[in-house]
Every structure is written in structure tokens, then in C-alpha cells.
Amino acid sequence: MVATKKDNELRFFKETGFFDEKELAIKHLRDIDDILFAEGVDYCVMFGTLLGLLRHNGLIPWDDDLDIIIFDTGKFEEKCRQQLETKGYVVHDDIRTFNGVDKHCGYRIHAEQGLDIPGQSWKFPWLGVWEPTIVKSSSGGGTMTLLTEEFIYAVDDFFPLERRAFLDFTVSTPRLSKQILKQYYGNDCMEVCMLHKLDHRQYKPTGFPTTKFALADVLTYLTENP
Predict the structure, then answer these.
(1) CB–CB of 172/163 below 8 Å?
(2) Which residues contact 40 (CB under 8 A, 6 or more apart)?
């Protein structure tokens, strides 16, 4: 049987992931959840980390980053930042320039023993923290945006937050997690998947094709080609 273009592209799913740093990445999320939850700082997992929880009961096998939203960064600074640094984490402020103005977008948090990333001051693996902009409505609720992202979310889709199992511990998730994921990734996000655009280990574009794959085909390929 002649291999198709899509068959040949499946191999890229083996070229990205946390690999030897997987347990360290999981420890990032566990430690950060322990501190934020204990201090009453509202947060939730987001993007691929949330998709991995719902679709894979943990990490997406080819994922190489972690994402959370912290809803009150002031409280995080007051109660949590120093605790993380005491546990051996480095907290980088994520500041980006929009229309000539520097804006605080969140944080990149990594362990001191992480791997150097060429040309960057943070290390791999890291956990990305998104700092939301929330516009409250007079009737309650409101809308939420994340800098660098185009989507407008309903605050009521997130709250009240729910605790869900992630591997052998629990994390905070949005109330309507699946609805939020479908808004961001598309209605078929539980059945299809795509390769990453960014290699977080090297912090550069992957150059991978933008083909959509049936999730079942990818998982079968990874099982048959360990």
C-alpha cells in the first residue's frame, strides 16, 4: 500500500512533546495548583491543557506547554509568587508591546532546573499564565478577553469554577469547559486534532503542516509506533 501525504505527516506527532521533561511539567501544574487553591486564588486550566484533561484525561501526548488563567493577579502577587519562588520556581512577567504600549499579559513560570531555550530568559518546560481583561456588565457576568487572542468569552461560562481530575490530582476548570473549547478550537475538537504551530522547547515555529487529522488515527499511529 502506498503511503498518502497524510500518512507521512502523522510522524510529526512523534516529534513534539514534553518527552523526558513530562514529569517535571506535571509537577509544575501540581505545585501551582496546590498553592493557588490553598490561597483561594481563582484560576483555571485553559487551551491545550484543558483539552488534554477532557479528551485524554491528562496531557495531550504531543503537547509541549501548559496554560492557565489567573483571574486575580494582584492576589497572586500578594499570596503566591513568593511561595513559588521558595519552592524553586522562577516567575517571569510576560510583558508584550501592543500599539507601542507595553502591557502585562501574565507570567511564564518554570523550575530553576529547566532546560535553556535559545535566545530566551525562561526555561523549558514552562507554565504560561494568562491575565484576563474582564468587563463587567450592570446585570452581572460580563465579558473576558486575553491579550494576543481574538476571542471574547462570557464570564458566566467560566464561573463558578469546577474541580476536575487531571491524572492523579485535581485542577480548576471552567464551568462550561467543553463549550469554551469548541468556541476556540471548533465544534469537532473532541474528534479531530492538529499539529502545533510553535515549538515551545526551542520557542520557534514548527513548520508543521496545518492538516486536520482524525484523533483516532493519530492515537492508533502513536500506539503502533512507540
Answers:
(1) yes
(2) 75
- DSSP tag of 108: E
- Give φ, ψ of 184 to 5 degrees: -85, -45
Distance CA(132)–CA(97), nearest Å, equals: 16
Residue 10 belongs to some domain of the structure: no
Residue 118: cis peptide before it, omega within 30 degrees of 0: no
Nearest by Cα to 50 from 128, 150, 152, 114: 128
Q: Quick one: how far is CA 148 from the chain centroid?
A: 14
Closest CA to 70 of 165, 183, 172, 153: 172
Which pLDDT score, from 0 to 100, does residue 173 have? Answer: 99
Q: Domain for residue 63, yes or no?
A: yes
Q: What is the pLDDT at residue 3?
A: 52
CATH number, domain with residue 69: 3.30.460
pTM: 0.95
Beta bridge partners of 162: 173
